[in-house]
């Protein structure tokens, strides 16, 4: 076994909330994910952050180190946050779990100067339709003229340290953004003024470039999940695994494999699984469960560690025979102690929904 064991759920049976990042092109989705990964690596010792397939796990201890005094780990019992690495609302709409969105919560990234753009509006409609709680990352605050950056600082400190002029320029943009959110039916405010995150959307000023506000963003995400998602995060840790295919890939030495985000239960080597396929559900046995070697950036001969069990929520690669016709966005189910026909029927029913939603997207 490797240190990917950290992907397991806590003993309490609460799984990691899955976080998606949405927003208009060039507003900073990728940079923000990179920054979150980067600050977690800098703040923590090696292995503090686990690289997954298609997802990045940030454990609670790392969140609290990055967030400093903003997060007291004793206040939380969720194990951390799992960020889906493919940003963009296309991936958000095609990645579903049991008919709902795969992500439990979302970050809507908006360039604070550019404001609402067509894809911002698309994203906000999707979040509304799927009733996904979200926070707004008002990104690129460092581009406000006269801005004096303070690397990785919580936003309050950096805000207070600005000249009156820079601060009022930022305020102007933030209030414009809050107005735009209101035009789209969301009552929003700066996150530190929000009392009830179920009624109001929190706006977090951030810079994916300097890291300012990133501690706040992580704190708000933890708080949102802990307060409002805790019931949904309650899973049977030893139940049969359920997940969603992100990608189908050929992998040297393994043939066709699927990259999966597991959102429920566990999956073990040798277990029988049912995977949604382009023609019909595929019934196969897991040959190997793979996770990237820690910080394995280079395409070395073996970039993966084999693990014998993975628990939700986590990203992983599954190698098994007959996966050539597996389909991105399709469900994956571990059969375990159930009737195989029931599981096939479940997968078929879900596939029908995936197809409907893809058509709708047109
Ligand atoms: P995406 O299309 O939403 O994933 O956007 P990217 O993350 O690729 O960012 C688009 C561009 O904006 C890149 O050149 C980034 O370096 C830049 N960028 C992103 N965030 C920030 C920020 O907070 N400050 C500054 N100055 N530039 C940023």
TrEMBL record:
The keyword Protein biosynthesis applies. GO terms for molecular function: GTP binding; GTPase activity; translation initiation factor activity. Keywords: GTP-binding, Initiation factor, Nucleotide-binding, Protein biosynthesis. One of its GO terms (cellular component) is cytoplasm. Residues 14-229 form the Tr-type G domain. The keyword GTP-binding applies. GTP binds at residues 23-30, 85-89, 139-142. Belongs to the TRAFAC class translation factor GTPase superfamily. Classic translation factor GTPase family. IF-2 subfamily. Function in general translation initiation by promoting the binding of the formylmethionine-tRNA to ribosomes. Seems to function along with eIF-2. This is Probable translation initiation factor IF-2. It comes from Halalkalicoccus paucihalophilus. The chain holds residues 1 to 362 of 601 of the full protein.
